[in-house]
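Students often ask why inverse folding is considered easier than folding. One informal answer: many sequences map to the same fold, so there is more than one right answer. In these notes we will look at a single instance of the problem. The structure comes first.
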């Protein structure tokens, strides 16, 4: 097959917005071809709906949702976020420390825009969620990726973090639970990261959007609960735990050492005001979601749909020759490795393109998450069990042909 054209730098770090593989998928769908999508965590597309009480509460309040709100958001949902922080042992948070946004993504970009000057550096995990790399670059900063170690359950490599700190380093991003690997970080590791931030006066930016999507009885610890003397920004929202991606309802909490961050917080307030406010219907869902029955617990229980699908995907992938995968403890993804000795892949975007064209299965190549080698891909285990079996069966068939072509 003819190699696909290389995409731009921005397209590479925004895999879900554009790119040759996704363009091909759209073309195939327009032609009426059915594709099994394992590429994006758009939960509602797989029949996982938000809790009914959230939907009904939004409907009841919609007549009063036509006006602008305070630039940081409505008081009641912000107060519910304060209560949630108390449950997570994040101390000292007031309503004024909470910003509501059109999803956590808007707030992540806002936080980086307010922070960075040209040449400033931000430490990001590799693999990462590519929004961070793009947002740092678009804010004039330099993204610097620290390695997460696959042989250690995808935990951040502390030595690598320390080695990459320079006088220009302003912040470190911690994605926990992790997308794309499904890793969940233990308290001891989080404390080490806090100590690094403390020593080098770094801001911690904690992405905790999957903090309730946990398996095997694991428990999530908010890194901000361990860092009263370090400035922390914690991002969360309704998209994943509450299956409400399209509501675009997220929040950012500023906590810890704020005395020396007055100018930065002033910048955050200015940017919040410039976008006027987050969408009001989405804000109206937050209080009900956080205070209501947490149905995510049913989905991640051993008999729950998400847990069963995780187990199935892990089992099926592990049976394919030359494929290894760390079983995720959280989130909706896994990040399988293709043994380079068996699969000598030089261009993993081309690999994903050919898999789509030949087997009608859509994945995201590992380098789309700023992983350095073309030997991984991300798989979303949201499709139902029958579709997962079919999809992994097609991947197995494609890989068998790939091995044959490569003479393996």
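Output (designed amino acids):
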């Amino acid at each position: 097959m003819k190699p696909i054209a290389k995409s731009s730098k921005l397209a590479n770090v925004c895999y879900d917005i554009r790119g040759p593989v996704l363009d091909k998928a759209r073309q195939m769908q327009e032609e009426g071809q059915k594709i099994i999508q394992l590429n994006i965590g758009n939960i509602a597309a797989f029949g996982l709906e938000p809790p009914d009480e959230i939907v009904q509460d939004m409907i009841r309040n919609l007549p009063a949702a036509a006006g602008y709100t305070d630039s940081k958001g409505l008081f009641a949902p912000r107060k519910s976020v304060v209560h949630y922080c108390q449950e997570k042992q994040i101390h000292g948070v007031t309503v004024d420390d909470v910003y509501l946004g059109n999803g956590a993504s808007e707030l992540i970009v806002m936080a980086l825009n307010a922070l960075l000057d040209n040449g400033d550096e931000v430490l990001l995990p590799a693999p990462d969620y590519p929004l961070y790399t793009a947002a740092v670059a678009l804010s004039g900063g330099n993204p610097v990726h620290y390695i997460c170690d696959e042989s250690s359950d995808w935990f951040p490599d502390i030595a690598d973090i320390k080695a990459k700190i320079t006088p220009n380093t302003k912040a470190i991003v911690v994605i926990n639970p992790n997308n794309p690997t499904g890793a969940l970080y233990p308290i001891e590791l989080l404390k080490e990261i806090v100590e690094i931030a403390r020593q080098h006066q770094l801001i911690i930016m904690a992405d905790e959007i999957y903090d309730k999507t946990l398996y095997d009885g694991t428990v999530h610890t908010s890194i901000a609960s361990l860092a009263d003397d370090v400035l922390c920004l914690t991002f969360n929202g309704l998209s994943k735990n509450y299956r409400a991606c399209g509501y675009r309802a997220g929040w950012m909490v500023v906590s810890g050492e704020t005395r020396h961050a007055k100018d930065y917080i002033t910048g955050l307030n200015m940017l919040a005001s410039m976008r006027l406010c987050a969408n009001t219907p989405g804000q109206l869902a937050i209080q009900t979601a956080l205070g209501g029955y947490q149905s995510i617990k049913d989905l991640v229980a051993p008999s729950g749909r998400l847990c069963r699908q995780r187990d199935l995907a892990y089992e099926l992938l592990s049976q394919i020759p030359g494929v290894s995968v760390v079983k995720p403890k959280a989130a909706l993804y896994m990040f399988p490795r293709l043994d380079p000795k068996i699969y000598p892949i030089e261009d993993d975007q081309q690999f994903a393109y050919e898999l789509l064209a030949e087997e009608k299965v859509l994945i995201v190549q590992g380098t789309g998450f700023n992983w350095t080698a073309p030997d991984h891909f991300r798989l979303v285990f949201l499709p139902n069990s029958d579709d997962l079996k079919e999809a992994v069966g097609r991947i197995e068939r494609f890989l068998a042909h790939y091995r044959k072509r490569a003479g393996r």
